[in-house]
Design brief:
The chain is α+β, with helices and mostly antiparallel strands and about 750 residues long. About 60% of the residues lie in helices and about 10% in strands. The strands form 2 sheets. Strands 1-2-3-4-5 form a 5-stranded mixed barrel. The model has no long low-confidence stretch (mean pLDDT about 90). This is Tetratricopeptide repeat protein.
Amino acid sequence: MDVDIWAWVGDTQRQLHEAGNTGLAMAIGDVPAQALEGRYAQLDVLAPAIAQQAQNLGLPWLEFYARYWHLIGRVGDRAQGAVALADAETLVELAQREDIRDCPGAPGAVTALALTQANTDGPGYADERLAALGALGVEPDSLAFSSVAEQYVSALLDAGRAEEAVTYAESAVGRLGAADRQASWELGAASARALLAAGRAQDALTALDAATGFKPDDPVAKEHREGVLRSLVLAVLGKPQESVDALPDLDVVGDHPRVWAEWARAIRELAGFAKITNTWQLGRVLKQWIDYFAMMGGYRTRVELALVAGDLAVSRQSVWQARQLADIAESAVGELKSAGDAAGSIAERIAALRTAADAVVEPEAPGPEAELVEYFDAADGFNADPERWVGWLAPLSGRDLPATRRHTTTLGFLGYPARGADIYWTMLVESGDIETADQQDVSYLTGLLIEARQDERLEQMAQRLPEAQRHLSLGRLHRARERWEQAAAEGEAAVAAGAGMEASRLWAAAVQQSGDNAKGAAILRDALDSEEIEPEDIWRMITMATAAEDWETVRAGTTKLGMPLQSTEGPIEEEMGLVRIVLPAPDGSQRVVISLRTGPATARLAIPQPTGMDYNAGDLVVFDPQLLEPIPESQEEQEGFIPPFAAVSMLRPGGYTSWFFDGAAPSEADWTEFNEVMAERGWPMWVYSDDSYTVAHPTSGERLPGVFGWIAIPPDVTPVELDAVLDDATERWVHPLAWLDLAKAVDVEVERHERIVKEYGL
């Protein structure tokens, strides 16, 4: 987006603040950071909400801005493909509207669509991307130029025109230099990729080195993206140790789908130098990535990853997996607009993978076929290779039930639930043995079918099961698909049919998701004496009962857990120490609020919150008793540890109102006295400024230590009382404190507070 858009964003925030729409003003400033920093759970909620508010307020540029950044959050680092195509096309249509087309960020819609098409099937959409990007006519004086050029180079590469891509990238960088502008790092990286594709790996490394100092459009992603590309270039150059040194670890790239294919290519190169450990764990991760792109509609990347993973599987002598990956690649070809690529047709590459798999001599089994189950059970769970066990157990699977259980569940563990389900299905369902099958086998097959997303098959199987197993299997399916009403109905039927604790858990969880905490707690209380009940079940019951204010059930749970309480009836209100409660903020982020734990699952917020929050000091909230962080191991760390918990719901608001104060910090003695005045009245106060906050001296202009924060007053205290107390408590300070919003609310000395704000630059 062009630089002017940021000036517009700042101006829009100011206008919204002045109009009293503080929450929206805060939110729009954080949306780009959410998209680039990977805070997608917040972005996916906040951006559509901003777009809707923008529509309601008649702010079309703001609507476009919100929709653009939401899309970038999806198709950028998350690399969504076909699942985002319709939204990307809609954004382009939106950008062409008369009231939006002049927005300086409008060209971003075309580049976002080009990126989405590249994610879906780069070569298949190459010509469309080139035409749309070329029609923009963006000049080097626009900050959109680098991103448009980057996408154009990418499209040329996908079209198999590597030399043209090199020439275009060099020309774009030169045009930017002539306009006294620097290319983005992303454009520099695109130039390096073009050189690598043209067979000029050394030049690619030189280009990448030159781009290192360029300013990135996405500063959060630059380090790991550069590391992956550098590693690939170095591996192609035959410098394996330098390549390994540059390659980001799996735990770094694991959250960034955009770099997965390039990272896998680098790994394949390094495997040839025996510089990486090619293990079953790597194969499992690659299969998860393949499945991700299947869900996101990243068709071309899915094929590429399957072929790379297949090559690595051949190197590991995992023949069965290489063949499965060849099947996956072949099945995905039909989703591509074009099956050709610069390295030859995909069909030829699949055939080559099959030939390589057929030539592999598989490792010998550790013992006779009849004893393999015993060997499997005796294997070291840490060092055993599940990929090899899949190959060794395959001849028995589908004939021998114990071997089938181990084989199919291991297939599911490695990411091939559909294959495991096929074997189990043939053995149990097609044979007609499902009606009398062991409950364990039904559970295994149900899990495999759910993982493989074979819902119709599962429903078909369920109709042939005994009543309890039928309802439990269908309940598990509905729970996995988040169909809570159906899950609750099946869970209830399963409990009635005697399906046990698992059915009670399923039923309770489903009704809780539907908002009926009282019923969920009652379901688990009915199972409180079950031998199958676990502490997690009891805590879940306590949380739901607390939200429903069913204190009798809460006490029944604490008794079962051996947790003593002081009171024996009525609401539980005890002092159980400090906790940190994690709550949502209007900008989609989270706030951690120090609170006093008052019960097994309740806490009273102790810190005043800024205006615009849905909660404040004095509010009583229900929290999930599952710790968000482990308790420190050392005694010293434990002493200062305040346990964090996630808020679940508001139980009872305290009715407190917060008021802002700001100004030069007083002396230590004055500040201590001020704190004592607030504490005596029971008015929570919290300083939000830190040591870096300063204000201007009204005459000399020198910087003075500053302080700002919020004071919360309960509902029985009026703002007039707070104003009077503040006035009395600060009248002898060397520098005055300002509380402008409060002064305006009570209409007392407003001009004085406005003068303080102006003179001290607050």
